[in-house]
Every structure is written in structure tokens, then in C-alpha cells.
Write a structure and sequence with these properties.
The complex is a heterodimer of chains A (504) and B (329). By secondary structure, chain A is an all-alpha fold. Chain A has one domain (2-234, 245-471). Chain A is built from 25 helices and two strands. The longest helix of chain A is centred in the first third of the chain and has 35 residues, at 107-141. The radius of gyration of chain A is 23 Å and the shape is globular. Chain B is of the alpha/beta class and 329 residues long. Chain B folds into two domains: 39-131 and 261-325, D-Maltodextrin-Binding Protein, domain 2, CATH 3.40.190.150; 134-250, Periplasmic binding protein-like II (D-Maltodextrin-Binding Protein, domain 2, 3-Layer(aba) Sandwich). In chain B, α5 (106-115) crosses α13 (308-325). The termini of chain B are far apart. Classes of the chains: A mainly alpha (504), B alpha/beta (329). At the A-B interface, β1, α10, α17 and α23 of A face α2, β2, α3, α5 and β7 of B.
Chain lengths: 504, 329
């Protein structure tokens, strides 16, 4: 109850015209920044931060908070319409969003699903943050190297659901992802790996250009090929109105359960140190595979879009818990916000809620405000966004190419990103032509780095003993889940085979 | 006609004189340097971290106090552990070289020299602004009461785990181990991406101790979740860190202090005039109240401004010592 009272007090801070304006501006900027591939919330917040020094700290953080938050909405736009994820959490959205927009010719509904699920997931996350933020942040602290290793092992099992029809190809491409992730500086010892004397390779393969290349630019290459085959420009018949983009009751019933489930899961993942919205989105999608979906995931299923979009927005809200309650940034963007707090003269850390309650609760209440504002803006722009799909291929090819080049350049402000994007585009195209799935490679690329660093830390702590995974309570429970996930399907299939033998 | 002729002659004389004057003036301008409207400042570590705050604080003071006109654009280039950004800055040429700055700390120099062929001589060292030092903190639930107990346990074959960041924290940890005579197997070090991550691990009891500079740990000390147990300095800190003894106070050891200097460098091609301008400008920043109160005092640093000549000498010697100690040629 006390929290509710403080939240209401927070609303008195955030609902001043100045702060509403700041949240509105932040929400619009976040949508734009999120929709542009390569320029994620990190760059958006970092660029805007110096402009906010002159603001009152509460107004400044409300604006940046809204930007960070609405960025998660924007990332799905280009993923759904162009198959180019605007930010890394949107990689999974593209898996179902693009087929739904393109093959099923329901782009408006795909965008509506993404916006609605983002709203639901985000709302769940903010409500949990309001009532259990500090407690959750303390729970997050309990997740050390061994617990994180167990969670990541569970996440790794989800690769098996993404490998597609040919398991050997799937496994092979998973290994390629792990191999590519190992390029660069070893995070624990600082030793260079596979850098071949190149300063750029020492920095590893940057994820965003890699994704833009394998998912987006590979598509440009295939579009050029298709265009050569038939000169006809495929025009998508799109309904350019909000009404035409509305979801049916049935659609909404399909969307709600995965969005709520992912809301809870995403918030929890967001609270974990170093996990972030990308892992949240992957986990949300993987969990959805375990539940029933009306259509198969990956073919344009509403459940698929809802699961990952709700999870990444919830994770963004969850990441505020350790940031506000403990002064621990859960992500790169969180780190910039933390730096901002220091420059505004506030002391982020365990005493923030005590020393600056107006600020902390003003920010939380502004997240509610930003969530509603962003939903409204995002729905209103759907008709304009869907127009992108009626652009003829001959214009689409240069447009996507420019988006890919600019996006991959702006990740690190260097041509290295563009080079990585072009090469991974070729890799993606070759894979696509030979029926190799890209999702397992991207998933293993993201998770392998985290898994390696956590597993090695766990082994340093235990002196190389496996005991650490079975003697700590949280790790033990997670390891049991992990082993069950592997053993149960094997036992089931063995039993099934036996049953068959008996009946025959 | 006569008057007209006189007027024309007068105008011609004025024109010639003014052209000559402008010519003299432009010669004068080319001798002294004035910064461009946009200054690019590269930071080779993540936004929000210690180096980033250091840089943004200086750029903020430079702008508000009108020490340098124009806009300062801070860019974080972290590829290759920052090596890509440092390499880019080192090789800039022409006017760009005069208008580019780089945040350069001992924590940047060590991995650069160790992992690449880039050396401090590829830069102009403009100034050193301050010196930072580290402490060791324990979490609330760490089983050792103080660091003396931890050293005893490690000497008796036990295992103590310390977490910390990369670069200078590792160098300080290694120097401390050498002094107390404990092996790396008994007092292990886990490298985290940032000090913040290492503190998170200490708060969750995943490491027993954490090595950190005062700024990052200060809030947790105030909240009672981190306890300072050892000052890696020649004398005790003040304020809420005063409780931490130095190494010589807890046993028959010499004090260990590895100064972590925070400086600013520029491309090797920066002109002497520009170097003089920036070195002086940074000296002015170091004199401001905002720098002293909001940066130095708040983060418990030691103010130690060195101009370009002294800073270059200091950094060159530091690099030489580090390379010798680590067998780098």
C-alpha cells in the first residue's frame, strides 16, 4: 500500500505539463531511434544525454526513460516490414512478424500484435517493478556465475526447437555461431583470440551488423535474384487504415496468454545482471515453443510475435529494478542512465529511494505514462508504416541497402561494421539458398559469449569442480530443469517406440 | 576632377593599408590555434563508466566556463577493448588531428602496450588531471572479518576469491599478491567487464572481496552493503573509507599503491600550438571549483594536474617501467 501511495505521489511529479511533454518527446524519439536499425536505445540515450544536462533531473530522466522504453516498440517495425531487426531483441520478432506481413498479407495486424504485446508485457513489467522492484533486484543478485550458467544452458536447449527439418544442418550452423562468438578478446584473461593480427577482429564480430547482414542484407541479394527471374513488381495489397489493422477477437485471444506469460518471464530476465532484453526475447520465444500455438511458430504466428515482443518490453522495465534499487545497470543503456544520474548530481545506489523519492517514483510513474503514450503513437503510425510494403522492389532494393549500410555503420561509427554486414549478408544468402536456418546461429552467437564467461567464472570459483552446479539451491533447481528438458523427450520417444513395438 | 582623383588615391591607399593589416592579422591567427566549432573526443570505454564520466565532466566544464568555444562531441569507441579507437586517434592527420582528443588512462595504456604495437609515442600527451587509487571491499556476508584473516586463510591453503575489473585493477591485485606472498591459486581473481559488475557479484556473495576505486563503491559503503577492508595506498583514506587500514598496518608488509592516472592525449600529428592550447585549457579546468568539488572531492581522487611536458615525461617512464616489468619489447 505504501508503494501505491508513493506511486501516486510520483504521478503528481510526472503529470506536470513539462514532464508529460518530455515523456511525449522521449517516446517519439525512442520510436524513431528504435525503428532505425543499428541505432539502438544505447546510442539514442547517449546522444540525448548531453542535451538534458540543463534540465531538471526528474524531467531529464523521464525523457530518457521514455526514450529507452519506447525504443523497444520501434525495434519491431523494421523487423516485421523489412525483415531487418531494428535492434537485437527484435531478431525473434522477425521470425514470425515478417512472414505474417508478407506471406499472410496482414502487415497491419502484425504491427498491431507487436504494439499490443509490447504494451501488455511492458505493463506487467512496470506493475511488478512498482510493487516488488527492490525485492526482485535483491533476488537478481542471487544469480551469480553458476546460476547464470544453468539458465543459459536452459536457453541453449531452445536452439533444438529452431534447427528446422534438418538437425545436422541446424547443429552445424549452431557451431558456426559459437565459433564466430569466440573471435575477439577473451573477457577473462584479456588474451586475443582468432584476431590474425587485426585490430578490428580483436574487438570481435559486432552483433548488430552481423544480424543486419544475415537477416536483412541477405534478403537484398535474394530480392535482386528474384527480380532477375521476373521483372514483375510484386505489390502488396495493404489496407492503409487503423481500422484495417485492428485485430479480431480471435486474434486477441491468441495474443493474450503468451503476452502475459512473457511479461512475467521477461521482467525476471530483465532483473538478472547482464541478461538484458535480447535474452528476454529469446527466452520468451523459446518458452512459447513449449506451449500450444494455433499455427506453427516461424510461419507468421501471432503467438510468436506476442511472446518475444512482450518479453523484451517487460525485460526493459525489469532492468530498472536493479538500476533504481541498487544502482546496478542491467544493460549498456542502463549504464548511460546511471552516468546521467551522477552528472545531474544524484547518487544512484541503494539510497536513491530514500534520498530522492520524488525522482525515483516520478520515473516509475512516467514509465506508465510512456507506455500508454507510445502505444497510442505506435498504433497511429501503422497506416503510414504499412505503405512501405507497397514500394516496388526496384526501389526497395536500394532503400534496404541504404538502411543496412547506415545501420551497421552507426553501431560503432566505423566501416568495419559495414564490412561485417556485407560479409554476413553473403553468408546469410548462401545459408538461405542451401536451407540452413539462421536463427540457431544468431541465438548461439548471443548466448555462447555469456555462457562461456559465466561458466568459466563458476569453474574459477569452484576450483574446476562440477559440484558448484549441484550444491547451490537455485543452481540445483535450474540444473534439474535443464536435465529434464534433455532427458524427458528422449525417454518419451523411447517409451513411444516400445509401445509401438508392443502393439505391433 | 581634382577632388575625385584625390578621393580615388585616398581610397586606394586605405585599401592597400587595410589589405596589409588583414594580411598581418591572418599571419598572427595562423600562429595561434583556435579550436574548430566541433571537437571530437574519443573515449575507449563504455558510456556511464569512470572514464566516460571523467570526460563528460571536463567537456561540460569547458563549455560552461567558456574555456573552449564550440561543441564537444564525446564518442565511445569500445571495439577491441578500445584498441580500435586508440589506433584511429593515433593516426589522424591534418586539421582533424588538431580537433580530436582522447581520454587516456593507465588502465588504457597497459592492455594497449600488452596486446598491440601501439605505444604512447604515437600520441601527444596533453595533460594528466588526477590520480585514482584502489581499495578492497568485502560484502556483508563474507566469512572473513577483515582482510588480515583472508590473507591468513590463503596462506594456510584456503581459497579466497576477489572480483574486479580489467587493466589497472589486475595490476594492483598482482602487486599486492607479490607483497603478501600468496599464490594466485589461493587468492583467485575473477575479471568482470566493469567494476560495477564486480560490485554486483560481491553484493550477491559470489565473490568474497571486490577491488574498486572509491567512486564506484562509495554509495554501497554508505548503505552498509560493502565494507572497506584494505586501502591500497600509502596512507588511509578519509571520510567513510577511513576504516580501511593500509597493508603495512595489518602485517609485516610494505604498502602497495599503484597510481591510476587519468589523462588526455591527442593524435601524434596535433600541432604544437594546438597542444599548448589544450594543455592550458585542461589546466584551467583543473582550477575550477566545479572540478574540485563535483569531481575530485566527490570521487575521492588526488588532484594532480601535469601539463603536456610533465605528463609526457611521466607517461613515457610509466610505459617503460610497465614494459620492463612484463617483459614486453
Amino acid at each position: 500500500m505504501e508503494n501505491l501511495e508513493l506511486l501516486l505521489r510520483g504521478f503528481t511529479v510526472s503529470l506536470t505539463p513539462m514532464n508529460i511533454g518530455a515523456a511525449f518527446l522521449g517516446a517519439i524519439l525512442g520510436l524513431i531511434v528504435g525503428a532505425m536499425p543499428g541505432i539502438g536505445s544505447l546510442a539514442g540515450v547517449a546522444l540525448l544525454l548531453p542535451l538534458t544536462y540543463k534540465f531538471d533531473p526528474t524531467t531529464a530522466i523521464i525523457m530518457l526513460g521514455a526514450l529507452y522504453y519506447s525504443n523497444m516498440y520501434g525495434g519491431s517495425f523494421s523487423a516485421i516490414l523489412l525483415n531487418i531487426p531494428g535492434d537485437s531483441p527484435a531478431v525473434m520478432t522477425a521470425l514470425d512478424g515478417y512472414p505474417m506481413a508478407k506471406k499472410k498479407k496482414r502487415p497491419g495486424q502484425a504491427l498491431f500484435t507487436a504494439n499490443m504485446s509490447s504494451f501488455i508485457g511492458g505493463s506487467v513489467g512496470i506493475i511488478i517493478l512498482t510493487f516488488a522492484g527492490p525485492a526482485l533486484a535483491n533476488l537478481g543478485l542471487k544469480f551469480g556465475p553458476s546460476e547464470m550458467t544453468a539458465i543459459l544452458l536452459i536457453a541453449m536447449t531452445s536452439i533444438s526447437w529452431l534447427v528446422g527439418e534438418n538437425p545436422i544442418k541446424g547443429m552445424l550452423i549452431t557451431m558456426v555461431g559459437i565459433l564466430l562468438a569466440s573471435i575477439g578478446m577473451d573477457t577473462l584473461s584479456g588474451a586475443p583470440r582468432y584476431d590474425f593480427g587485426s585490430m578490428y577482429l580483436l574487438g570481435g564480430i559486432p552483433f548488430t551488423p552481423f544480424v543486419i547482414g544475415t537477416v536483412g542484407f541477405s534478403q537484398v541479394i535474394s530480392l535482386i535474384n528474384e527480380r532477375n527471374k521476373s521483372s514483375e513488381n510484386e505489390k502488396v495489397d495493404t489496407k492503409l487504415s487503423i481500422r484495417g489493422s485492428l485485430l479480431t477477437k480471435h486474434d486477441f485471444r491468441r495474443l493474450l496468454p503468451p503476452a502475459l506469460r512473457s511479461g512475467f518471464l521477461g521482467t525476471f530476465v530483465g532483473v538478472l545482471p547482464g541478461a538484458g532484453a535480447t535474452t528476454g526475447s529469446f527466452m520468451g520465444y523459446a518458452v512459447q515453443k513449449k506451449f500450444k500455438s494455433e499455427e506453427e511458430l516461424g510461419t507468421g504466428a501471432i503467438e510468436g510475435i506476442a511472446a518475444c515482443e512482450a518479453a523484451n518490453n517487460a525485460a526493459a522495465a525489469g532492468a530498472f529494478a536493479p538500476l533504481l534499487a541498487l544502482g546496478i545497470p542491467g544493460s549498456g543503456t542502463g549504464a548511460v542512465l546511471l552516468g546521467g544520474l551522477m552528472l545531474w548530481g544524484l547518487n544512484p545506489g541503494p539510497l536513491l529511494f530514500q534520498n530522492n523519492p520524488d525522482f525515483a517514483w516520478g520515473l516509475i510513474s512516467s514509465l506508465f505514462l510512456a507506455n500508454i503514450l507510445t502505444l497510442m503513437i505506435a498504433i497511429m503510425v501503422i497506416p503510414f508504416l504499412t505503405k512501405i510494403l507497397s514500394v516496388p522492389t526496384k526501389y526497395m532494393i536500394p532503400i534496404i541497402t541504404v538502411v543496412c549500410v547506415v545501420g551497421s555503420y552507426s553501431t560503432n561509427n566505423s566501416m568495419y561494421g559495414v564490412l561485417v554486414m556485407l560479409l554476413s549478408g553473403i553468408l546469410g544468402y548462401v545459408m538461405q539458398k542451401n536451407d540452413y536456418p539462421t536463427a540457431p546461429m544468431l541465438l548461439s552467437f548471443v548466448l555462447a559469449k555469456l555462457l562461456e564467461s559465466n561458466m568459466r567464472k563458476a569453474f574459477i570459483i569452484s576450483g574446476g569442480s562440477l559440484n558448484i552446479f549441484f550444491t547451490r539451491p537455485i543452481t540445483l533447481v535450474l540444473m534439474i530443469i535443464f536435465i529434464a528438458l534433455i532427458v524427458v523427450p528422449i525417454v518419451r520417444s523411447l517409451l513411444g517406440r516400445r509401445k509401438k513395438e508392443y502393439t505391433v | 576632377m581634382g577632388i575625385k582623383k584625390k578621393m580615388v588615391t585616398l581610397l586606394a591607399v586605405i585599401l592597400i593599408l587595410s589589405t596589409a593589416l588583414i594580411g598581418c592579422q591572418s599571419q598572427e591567427v595562423s600562429k595561434t590555434y583556435t579550436p574548430d566549432s566541433t571537437i571530437n573526443w574519443t573515449v575507449t570505454s563504455s558510456p556511464g563508466g569512470g572514464s566516460d564520466i571523467f570526460t563528460r565532466m571536463i567537456s561540460d566544464i569547458m563549455t560552461t566556463e567558456k574555456i573552449a568555444d564550440g561543441t564537444i562531441v564525446v564518442t565511445n569507441k569500445t571495439d577491441g577493448g578500445g584498441e580500435v579507437g586508440r589506433n584511429d586517434v593515433a593516426h589522424l592527420q591534418g586539421n582533424k588531428a588538431n580537433n580530436t582528443l582522447l581520454t587516456f588512462n593507465s588502465g588504457d595504456l597497459m592492455p594497449m602496450v600488452k596486446n598491440t604495437k601501439n605505444r604512447s609515442s604515437n600520441f601527444r600527451i596533453l595533460a594528466i588531471m588526477a590520480v585514482d587509487k584502489q581499495l578492497i571491499f568485502k560484502g556483508k556476508n563474507t566469512k572473513y572479518n577483515d582482510f588480515k584473516e583472508a590473507i591468513e586463510a590463503a596462506k594456510n591453503g584456503g581459497t579466497v576469491i576477489i572480483g574486479g575489473s580489467k587493466g589497472d585493477d589486475i595490476a594492483t591485485y598482482e602487486a599486492m599478491l607479490e607483497e603478501i606472498g600468496v599464490s594466485k591459486d589461493n587468492m583467485k581473481y575473477i575479471t568482470y567487464d566493469s567494476t560495477g559488475d564486480a560490485i554486483t557479484a560481491a553484493l550477491g556473495d559470489h565473490v568474497e572481496f571486490v577491488i574498486s576505486k572509491p567512486a564506484a563503491a562509495s554509495q554501497y559503503v554508505e548503505a552498509g552493503t560493502l565494507i572497506p577492508v584494505l586501502a591500497l595506498a600509502t596512507e588511509r583514506y578519509t571520510g567513510n573509507l577511513a576504516g580501511a587500514p593500509t597493508l603495512s598496518e595489518i602485517g609485516d608488509y610494505e604498502n602497495v599503491e599503484i597510481p591510476v592516472w587519468r589523462g588526455i592525449a591527442a593524435p601524434a600529428a596535433m600541432s604544437d600550438e594546438a597542444v599548448a592550447f589544450w594543455s592550458e585549457a585542461l589546466g584551467k579546468v583543473a582550477e575550477t571549483q566545479k572540478w574540485k568539488n563535483d569531481y575530485i572531492d566527490k570521487n575521492k581522487l588526488v588532484p594532480d594536474y601535469k601539463d603536456t611536458v610533465k605528463a609526457t615525461e611521466y607517461v613515457t617512464q610509466y610505459e617503460k617501467d610497465y614494459m620492463e616489468a612484463n617483459g614486453i619489447k
